[in-house]
C-alpha cells in the first residue's frame, strides 16, 4: 500500500482543501441553511471519482448517492451525512464555525468531526486508490443523507423505496474516533430508541393553588407515574422491559475489558464526584454500552418563570428517551409502557410516540470488521479498540441489519472532537491516516 | 339603622360612582400601572370622611392610612388593598377590564371583587353613618396596601415600623363572598404558606442522552426526592409535618357541616369526574379548609420545546407551595423539609425560600365575629355561613394575630365573582347590602 500512502501524503493539501470547502457550507438541516449547496458539493467530489452519482429525492432533504464500479461486484458502502448540528452558542467558539481554520494541527469547524471529515476521507481514499491503481478492487457505494442531525426522518422511506441502491456486502458507518491512548476505536452497533412524550391533564384550567387540597394536580400524578417506571437503583420497573435483552457473549465481555474509558478526565470535565450509582471500571463500561436506559430529556408543568406564582397546573408533560439494546424492540417497549401505566392507574396519561429506532449490532466476527481491525493495526502499529456497540443511536438497522448488511464504524474523530458542541475539531494527522485506512480496507476487504 | 339604610339607598348612585372611578384606574402592582393614581383616589375618599389620612412610604408601593375618631377609642380597622391582578387575557373579557360597565345588575371590572368593592363599601359605610348620625360610635382605621397581589412583600416591614397605626380591637379583612344559597360567608382565618424552590444540579453542562447510562440525571433525582415528600394518598411524608396541626374543635366541626360547597357545579365547570381522592361532602370541606397541602406550582428540567431532543439535563427545578394550617410554622416546615431531604440522600438539593407566611385564625367566639354574624342575619334575614378558615393565604398574621387583633372576613363578592380571572364582577345589590352591613357592624360592635 506504500504507493497509495505516498500519493496521499503528496496530495494531502488537495484533500484538506476538499474538507475545508465542505466545512465552509453551513448545512444545518434543522434551520434549512446551505443544504442544496452541500449536497451539490458532495456530488462534485463524487464526479471526480468517475462514478455514477445522483441526488435521490425524498419527502425531506435528498440523499446523495454514488456508485463506483470496481473489478468485482462485491460492494463496500459508506453511510454518511452532509448535514450538521446548529453551531450555537457562537460566543463559545474560538474560531468561526464555518471557515475550517487550522490551528495547532487541528481543523476547527461545525461538522468537521460529525461527519464531514469521515465523508471526505472516504471520498479521498477512493480517489487516491484510483489515481495510483486505476481501477478499484471492488465496487463502492456512497449513501449520504441530509437529515441525520434531525433524526433521519425520511431515511426509512428512502431505504424501502431504493433497496437496490443500499444493497452491499458491508457498510462502513458514519462515525468513528481515536481514543485517548491513540488507538482507533471501531464499533459494531448502535442502541435503539423509544422517544415518547407523556401528557397528564387535570382540570381544564390552571387554578389558584388553594384548591390543591381537593383538586388533583397533574404534575404530582405524572411524577408518581414516573416513579413507578424507574427506581433509585436505575432499574426500569416496566414489566417485561428487560425480557429481550441479550446476555453478553464471551467476546463482548472481553471487548468490554479491553475498552479504555478515561474515568477521571470525564468526571473532572463534568465537575462530578462519581458516576451513576458509583459504577467504575468494567461495570461502568458495560452499563454505557450494553444497558438500556430510561432518561428524562425534559419535564414541564405550571409556572416555571422567575419568582413565585401559586398555581395548580392543568397539565404536565415529560419527554422520555429509552435507549434500547439488542434485541429490544421500540414498538414493544411503548406497548409495555402503555400496559404499565394502565396497571398503575394512569390510563389517562397519554403517550405520544416521537421516534422509534431499533438497536443494531454486527457480530464481532465478520469479514468487514476483521478487515478494518487488520488494516488499522498494519497502518498504526496498534490494535484498535473494538466496541461491540456504541452508546449512541442511529438509523443503522433500517439501512443495514434489516437487509443483512454488516456495518462497522471507524472514522477520523478523536475523544475530544466536541461533536455537537463549540470548537468541534479533528486532527489533520488523523484525517490523513483515515484516508489511508479506508484505502487499505478497500484493498483488503476485496479479497475476503 | 333604618335611617342609615335609607340614606344609603337614596345615595347609592354616589357610592356606585365612587366604585366605578376607582375601578377605572388600572392599578396593577405587578406591572406598576396606575398605582399612584389609585392611592390618591383612596386618599380623596378618606378626606370626604374628615379623618386623618396619609400615604405611608415603604420600600415598595406605599400604604394608604386613614383614621376617623369616634365617640370612643375602641377601634375597628379595615384591611384592604388598592392594587389588582393583571387583567390578561384581554380577549376573554366581555367588557373592558377598566371601565366598570354595569350589565344585568353586575359591575364588571378587574378588581371590583378583589377588592375595590369591599374597600369602597367600607368607605361608603363610614360616610353614610357620618351623614346621618354625625359622629361614629367608635374609631375606625383603614389600612390599604398596594402589594397584596404581589405577595404583600413590604407589609411586614410596614406593620413592624407602624405598630401604632395598625393597633385596633378588631379588623375586618379584605375579602368576602356570598354563597350560591344567598347567605353571606364569613371567615375567620387564612392558611399559611411555605413557598420554596428546590434546585437539583447534575453535570456542569447538558449532555448527549447516550450518557444517561452512567451519568446521574438531576430530573430523576428531583423526582425521587419529591416522591419521598408526598405519597399517592396525598400524605406528606416529611417527619413532623403534621405535628403542630390542631384538632378541629366541636365548633369548627359544626361549621364544616353547615358550610355549603357546590360540588357538582364545581366539577362540571372544571370538566372533572371527581375531587382529589374522590372526597365528598364534609370530608371534602374539611380538606379544603383544614388540611395543609404540598402543591407543585411548577416543575422544569431539560428540553421542553416542540419535538424531541435527546438531552441529559444538567439541572432540575420545582416550585412547591405548602399551605399551612394553625399551628404550623413555615420556618419550621422548611427546616423539616431540609432534614427530610438530607435523610433521604438529597443533601445536594438546594432549598430557596420564596415566601413564608404563618397561618392565622380567630376563634369563632369573639365580639367582632358575633357582631358581624348578628348584623348579617338582621340585614338579610338569613344566618350567614361561617368558615372557621379560608383555604387561601394572606398577610393576616403579621397585621392581626401577631398583635392580638381578631380578624374577620366579610365582603361584597359572590361565589362566581371570577377573582383573578376575566369578567370579574360583583352584584350592585350585594355592594349596597355590603355598605349597610358595615354600617350596622360599626353601630353594633361599638357596644360589645
Automatic annotation (TrEMBL), chains A, B:
<dbReference type="GO" id="GO:0046872">
    <property type="term" value="F:metal ion binding"/>
</dbReference>
<dbReference type="Pfam" id="PF07687">
    <property type="entry name" value="M20_dimer"/>
</dbReference>
<keyword id="KW-0479">Metal-binding</keyword>
<dbReference type="GO" id="GO:0009089">
    <property type="term" value="P:lysine biosynthetic process via diaminopimelate"/>
</dbReference>
<dbReference type="InterPro" id="IPR051458">
    <property type="entry name" value="Cyt/Met_Dipeptidase"/>
</dbReference>
<dbReference type="GO" id="GO:0008233">
    <property type="term" value="F:peptidase activity"/>
</dbReference>
<dbReference type="GO" id="GO:0009014">
    <property type="term" value="F:succinyl-diaminopimelate desuccinylase activity"/>
</dbReference>
<keyword id="KW-0378">Hydrolase</keyword>
<dbReference type="Pfam" id="PF01546">
    <property type="entry name" value="Peptidase_M20"/>
</dbReference>
<feature type="domain" description="Peptidase M20 dimerisation">
    <location>
        <begin position="189"/>
        <end position="347"/>
    </location>
</feature>
<keyword id="KW-0645">Protease</keyword>
<dbReference type="GO" id="GO:0005829">
    <property type="term" value="C:cytosol"/>
</dbReference>
<dbReference type="InterPro" id="IPR002933">
    <property type="entry name" value="Peptidase_M20"/>
</dbReference>
<dbReference type="GO" id="GO:0006508">
    <property type="term" value="P:proteolysis"/>
</dbReference>
<dbReference type="InterPro" id="IPR011650">
    <property type="entry name" value="Peptidase_M20_dimer"/>
</dbReference>
<protein>
    <submittedName>
        <fullName>Peptidase M20</fullName>
    </submittedName>
</protein>
Amino acid at each position: 500500500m506504500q504507493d497509495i500512502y505516498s500519493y496521499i501524503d503528496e496530495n494531502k493539501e488537495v484533500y484538506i482543501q476538499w474538507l475545508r470547502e465542505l466545512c465552509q457550507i453551513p448545512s444545518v438541516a434543522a434551520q434549512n441553511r446551505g443544504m442544496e449547496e452541500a449536497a451539490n458539493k458532495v456530488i462534485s467530489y463524487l464526479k471526480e471519482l468517475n462514478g455514477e452519482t445522483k441526488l435521490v429525492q425524498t419527502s425531506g432533504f435528498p440523499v446523495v448517492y454514488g456508485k463506483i464500479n470496481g473489478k468485482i461486484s462485491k460492494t463496500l458502502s459508506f453511510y454518511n451525512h452532509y448535514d450538521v448540528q446548529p453551531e450555537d452558542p457562537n460566543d463559545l467558539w474560538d474560531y468561526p464555525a464555518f471557515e475550517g481554520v487550522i490551528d495547532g494541527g487541528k481543523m476547527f469547524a461545525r461538522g468537521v468531526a460529525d461527519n464531514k471529515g469521515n465523508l471526505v476521507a472516504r471520498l479521498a481514499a477512493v480517489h487516491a486508490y484510483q489515481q495510483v491503481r486505476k481501477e478499484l478492487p471492488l465496487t463502492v457505494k456512497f449513501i449520504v443523507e441530509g437529515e441525520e442531525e434531525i433524526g433521519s426522518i425520511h431515511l426509512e422511506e428512502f431505504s424501502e423505496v431504493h433497496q437496490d441502491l443500499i444493497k452491499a456486502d458491508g457498510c462502513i458507518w458514519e462515525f468513528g474516533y481515536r481514543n485517548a491512548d491513540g488507538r482507533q476505536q471501531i464499533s459494531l452497533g448502535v442502541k435503539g430508541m423509544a422517544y415518547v412524550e407523556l401528557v397528564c391533564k387535570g382540570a381544564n384550567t390552571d387554578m389558584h393553588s388553594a384548591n390543591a387540597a381537593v383538586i388533583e394536580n397533574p404534575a404530582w400524578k405524572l411524577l408518581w407515574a414516573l416513579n413507578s417506571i424507574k427506581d433509585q437503583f436505575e432499574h426500569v420497573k416496566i414489566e417485561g422491559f428487560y425480557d429481550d435483552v441479550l446476555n453478553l457473549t464471551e467476546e463482548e465481555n472481553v471487548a468490554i475489558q479491553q475498552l479504555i474509558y478515561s474515568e477521571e478526565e470525564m468526571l473532572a470535565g463534568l465537575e462530578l464526584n462519581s458516576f451513576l450509582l458509583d459504577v467504575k471500571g468494567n461495570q461502568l463500561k458495560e452499563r454505557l454500552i450494553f444497558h438500556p436506559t430510561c432518561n428524562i430529556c425534559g419535564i414541564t408543568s405550571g409556572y416555571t418563570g422567575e419568582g413565585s406564582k401559586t398555581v395548580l397546573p392543568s397539565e404536565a408533560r415529560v419527554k422520555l428517551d429509552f435507549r434500547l439494546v439488542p434485541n429490544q424492540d421500540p414498538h414493544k417497549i411503548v406497548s409495555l409502557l402503555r400496559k404499565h401505566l394502565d396497571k398503575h392507574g394512569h390510563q389517562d396519561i397519554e403517550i405520544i410516540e416521537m421516534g422509534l429506532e431499533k438497536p443494531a449490532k454486527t457480530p464481532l466476527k465478520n469479514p468487514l470488521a476483521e478487515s478494518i481491525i487488520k488494516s488499522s493495526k498494519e497502518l498504526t502499529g496498534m490494535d484498535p479498540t473494538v466496541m461491540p456497540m456504541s452508546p449512541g443511536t442511529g438509523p443503522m438497522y433500517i439501512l443495514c441489519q434489516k437487509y443483512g448488511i454488516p456495518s462497522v464504524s471507524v472514522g477520523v474523530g478523536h475523544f475530544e472532537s466536541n461533536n455537537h458542541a463549540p470548537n468541534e475539531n479533528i486532527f489533520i494527522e488523523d484525517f490523513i491516516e483515515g484516508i489511508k485506512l479506508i484505502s487499505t480496507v478497500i484493498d483488503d476487504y476485496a479479497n475476503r
